[in-house]
């Protein structure tokens, strides 16, 4: 059966509508954690390419109907949208971090092109059609709001994500996902006059190509959608490991002199004796630990290993696990509000409350926590005796501050979330400054290091053998 141009346009626009609404629904349920799921980048690409394919067929209709202004401006907006989608896909994977700095400029270009294309649907001859005029008005409003939101984000919040901005982004994303409805309405109606050119049949090879694209679109929606749904639901709840640890960790909240609050968990040594001094490990969670439940942060590798019964007896120590919310960090990441100061305020308070050996303070963390670990020892020299940064990047300009700290850094060679160069660079800088950090790079391993860390002999023995180097005054 030979399908007409309008039938294919309706199919792709309808599929784009379904995929967009599905993504918006998941974002509403899961929140910003959705974009960190392994299936999201591919689903994002499939959904946007489907929408762009529908747009390409729609542009053909503009050409047939001789809506020249709408066709030309829409064509330009099509290519800017394609550029934005491919760039964001590279960042989401990420294929390269070098492209990230270009995204705001490409986004502004795309929003500008969208505003021009939307205006042409309203002001040109295409605006005589009610559906197209409504599509233009809706697109103009969404693009205008997105541009204002971008300016506010950059000028007021310095690009940092905040709960308020995320709510606006969710609303705009939902509104944008509804745009295909207007074009479906336009294509569904009959031509204004019988003599008016409207539709055309496709050749056999065009039909084969578009049928293949149809199958690929449906397959992507089903397989990637199901995968993303499962990952999203799992991400909306604490990991089982964290729930298990919450039974033995004490839930606490710290308030500093400025009134800032920090939720944290604390585990005391078994058979704690206030006449003895114990080491303390600060465990800085990664992105999966974001939240306000004071539970998610307990799934880290160091917590899982140190709470094993044999290790609790072998390495009696305090374990401190603070939790920060999305839009913040432990330091070392641009555009995220650092929560390092309040952690150090908490450390000082705990040292007064418990019998803690100030010469045996340790810090460890993965990913977001790995950045924080590097930042803690780089910005607060003389506090920690040892550090275990996992899959994190450090600031080589702070190398001199890290010379006297025992460091054992770990990274996966094929890490696409935090490229390995960020760790190699700071290790080399510390060595050049006179330090002797240990560095283990796992060949063929990505961002997730737990099995490789488990197979590393002597890691915990090394950690608890370290004592702070006190410089003579």
From TrEMBL:
<feature type="transmembrane region" description="Helical">
    <location>
        <begin position="208"/>
        <end position="230"/>
    </location>
</feature>
<keyword id="KW-0472">Membrane</keyword>
<dbReference type="InterPro" id="IPR050955">
    <property type="entry name" value="Plant_Biomass_Hydrol_Est"/>
</dbReference>
<feature type="transmembrane region" description="Helical">
    <location>
        <begin position="102"/>
        <end position="123"/>
    </location>
</feature>
<dbReference type="InterPro" id="IPR029058">
    <property type="entry name" value="AB_hydrolase_fold"/>
</dbReference>
<keyword id="KW-0378">Hydrolase</keyword>
<dbReference type="InterPro" id="IPR000801">
    <property type="entry name" value="Esterase-like"/>
</dbReference>
<keyword id="KW-0812">Transmembrane</keyword>
<feature type="transmembrane region" description="Helical">
    <location>
        <begin position="168"/>
        <end position="188"/>
    </location>
</feature>
<keyword id="KW-0732">Signal</keyword>
<dbReference type="GO" id="GO:0016787">
    <property type="term" value="F:hydrolase activity"/>
</dbReference>
<feature type="transmembrane region" description="Helical">
    <location>
        <begin position="135"/>
        <end position="156"/>
    </location>
</feature>
<feature type="transmembrane region" description="Helical">
    <location>
        <begin position="75"/>
        <end position="96"/>
    </location>
</feature>
<dbReference type="Pfam" id="PF00756">
    <property type="entry name" value="Esterase"/>
</dbReference>
<feature type="transmembrane region" description="Helical">
    <location>
        <begin position="9"/>
        <end position="30"/>
    </location>
</feature>
<feature type="transmembrane region" description="Helical">
    <location>
        <begin position="42"/>
        <end position="63"/>
    </location>
</feature>
<keyword id="KW-1133">Transmembrane helix</keyword>
<protein>
    <submittedName>
        <fullName>Dienelactone hydrolase family protein</fullName>
    </submittedName>
</protein>
């Amino acid at each position: 059966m030979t399908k007409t141009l309008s039938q294919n346009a309706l199919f792709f626009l309808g599929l784009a509508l379904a995929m967009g609404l599905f993504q918006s629904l998941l974002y509403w349920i899961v929140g910003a954690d959705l974009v960190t799921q392994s299936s999201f980048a591919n689903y994002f690409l499939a959904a946007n390419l489907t929408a762009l394919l529908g747009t390409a067929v729609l542009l053909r209709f503009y050409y047939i109907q001789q809506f020249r202004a709408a066709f030309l401006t829409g064509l330009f907006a099509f290519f800017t949208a394609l550029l934005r989608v491919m760039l964001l896909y590279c960042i989401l994977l990420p294929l390269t971090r070098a492209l990230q700095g270009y995204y705001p400029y490409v986004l502004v270009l795309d929003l500008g092109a969208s505003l021009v294309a939307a205006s042409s649907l309203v002001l040109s001859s295409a605006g005589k059609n009610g559906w197209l005029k409504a599509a233009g008005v809706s697109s103009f409003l969404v693009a205008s709001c997105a541009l204002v939101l971008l300016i506010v984000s950059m000028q007021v919040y310095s690009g940092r994500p905040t709960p308020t901005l995320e709510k606006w982004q969710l609303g705009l994303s939902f509104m944008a996902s509804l745009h295909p409805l207007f074009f479906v309405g336009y294509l569904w109606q009959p031509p204004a006059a019988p003599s008016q050119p409207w539709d055309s049949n496709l050749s056999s090879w065009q039909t084969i190509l578009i049928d293949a694209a149809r199958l690929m679109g449906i397959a992507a929606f089903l397989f990637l959608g199901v995968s993303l749904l499962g990952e999203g639901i799992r991400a909306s709840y604490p990991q089982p490991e964290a729930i298990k640890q919450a039974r033995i960790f004490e839930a606490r909240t710290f308030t500093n002199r400025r009134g800032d609050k920090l939720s944290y968990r604390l585990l005391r040594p078994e058979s704690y004796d206030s006449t003895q001094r114990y080491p303390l490990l600060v465990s800085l969670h990664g992105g999966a630990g974001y939240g306000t439940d004071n539970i998610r942060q307990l799934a880290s590798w160091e917590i899982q290993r140190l709470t094993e019964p044999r290790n609790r007896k072998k390495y009696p120590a305090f374990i401190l696990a603070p939790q920060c919310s999305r839009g913040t960090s432990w330091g070392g990441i641009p555009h995220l509000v650092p929560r390092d100061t309040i952690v150090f305020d908490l450390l000082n308070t705990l040292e007064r409350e418990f019998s803690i050996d100030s010469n045996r303070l340790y810090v460890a963390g993965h990913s977001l926590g790995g950045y924080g670990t590097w930042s803690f020892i780089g910005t607060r020299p003389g506090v920690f005796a040892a550090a275990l940064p996992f899959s994190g990047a450090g600031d080589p300009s702070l190398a001199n501050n890290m010379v006297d700290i025992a460091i054992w850094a770990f990274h996966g060679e094929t890490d696409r979330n935090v490229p390995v160069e960020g760790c190699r660079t700071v290790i080399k800088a510390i060595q050049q400054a006179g330090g002797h950090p240990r560095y283990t790079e796992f060949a063929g391993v990505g961002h997730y290091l737990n099995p490789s860390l488990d197979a590393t002999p002597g890691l915990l023995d090394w950690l608890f053998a370290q004592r702070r180097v006190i410089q003579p005054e």
